[in-house]
Structures are given as C-alpha cells and as structure tokens.
Amino acid sequence: MSAVFGRHSLLFGVLTCALLVAAAPAQADTVTVNLDQARLLKLPGRVTTIVIGNPLIADATLQSGGMLVVTGKGYGATNLLALDRDGRVVMSKLVQVLGPASEDLVVVYKGVARESYSCTPECHPRITLGDGKEFFGETIGQSSARNGAAQGGGAAAASAAPPSAR
Questions:
Q1: Where are the alpha helices (DSSP H) in the chain?
Q2: Minimal CB count within 10 Å: which of 97, 102, 151, 158?
Q3: Model pTM greater than 0.85?
Q4: HSE on the CB side for 163, CA within 13 Å?
Q5: pLDDT digits over 52-94, tens only?
Q6: Under CATH, to which class is 27-98 assigned?
Q7: Which SS3 state, helix, strand or coil, does residue 163 take?
Q8: Distance linking the first and last C-alpha atoms of the chain
Q9: Beta bridge partners of residue 58, listed in sequence order
Q10: Contacts with 146 (C-beta within 8 Å, 6 or more apart), sequence order
C-alpha cells in the first residue's frame, strides 16, 4: 500500500510543480523601469510600429538601430507590442513601472499630505506622483515658471507663477 501511495505522492508533486511553472509569468517577458526613468531595449528586426497599452503608465520611443526607449510615466503595469510592416506581433512584453529607486529621495508626511524631496546633500522639492495636491501644484508651478524663463519667456513665466513662487 505504501508503494502505491508513494507513487501517487510523487505524481502529485510532479503535477503540482508543472502547474506552478505553467502559471508563473516568464521573467524575460517583463520589463521593469522606475518612475521618471528610461530603459533601453533591443528590438527584433523588422519592427515598424510600437503600441503601449496605457500611455499614462509608460511611454516608448522607437530609435534607429533597433533600439527602443521605454520611460516610466505612472505606477502600475501595461503591455508593449512591437509590430512588423504586416501588422504581425514580433514582440510582446509586460512593462512594470516601480516607484523611484533613488537613495537621495526623502518623503515627508504632514498628516495625510505627502511631500517628496531630493537630498544630494541639500534637500530640494521633487515632483513625485502621490505627493499632496498643494505641494505638487506649487512645486510644478515653480518648475514651469523656471522652464519658461529659461526658454526666453521670463516676464510671462513670472506672472504665471503662483504668488508664493514670485
């Protein structure tokens, strides 16, 4: 009886292992990228079109030489498809965007409001998804005003900045 039970136990173990392997997603089919960072991928030949399932999560830009730049735009996962001229899928990947992986990132909670700072070594506000609405708006307003001034619209950018940034 123990020989029969042992044989069934071995068969059960083999089947369980086979099911786990079949159910586990292939790591090679997942591309991970950090929020606000880019990653390079080498594409197979003949790729003419790139499709991103949710462009709020990731963006992709096809470059010459068969290179693809994938940029993390928001937290989560989406799919990436590479098509040839005939519309056939030649590559399919899952793109998973993770939080910032920066050692200089400091997060401050003021009650339920969150603020993010980049500290290298002095701390300065950093625009990060999930920050409190007021902090995020003020920080992005200052950044936009500065960028506008740098592009030659100094007076217009300064008047568009929030009062606290003037």
A1: 2-23, 133-150, 154-160
A2: 151
A3: no
A4: 0
A5: 999 999 999 989 889 999 999 999 999 999 999 999 999 999 9
A6: mainly beta
A7: helix
A8: 86
A9: 72
A10: 157
